[in-house]
Design a protein that fits this description.
125 residues, mainly alpha, 4 helices
Amino acid sequence: MKDEEQYLREILKHLKRWGLSAGILRIIHILLGILAVFSSLLVAAKINSLDKVYIEWFAFSAALSVGIQTGFDLGNKANRFRRAWRLVNWSYLKYKANDGHTINNLIDDYRTGEEIVGDVKEVLT
């Protein structure tokens, strides 16, 4: 029974971390998207009152924002964290409801959740 409580604490710790990671990644993804669009629009508008140095910085920030988003695949990573969270949260609720879902089922679902989260950027073969 003590091992079971230890497993539950560990799984709940990761569940909380996955929820937080999904939220933070989504916020970063949205902010980088807004920065990219805003910077691109300022560059495209060719506003005469803006110094050339500012235009170059806006162009750089737009490119950097898009590069970070795509290079690290932030949107997909946030989605995978959320998908793993949903699976393990559902499994935990079934376990707590004594609905025939054992600690072993919960551990198996946690393992599946870890596989869903995966690496920074999934490589499809």
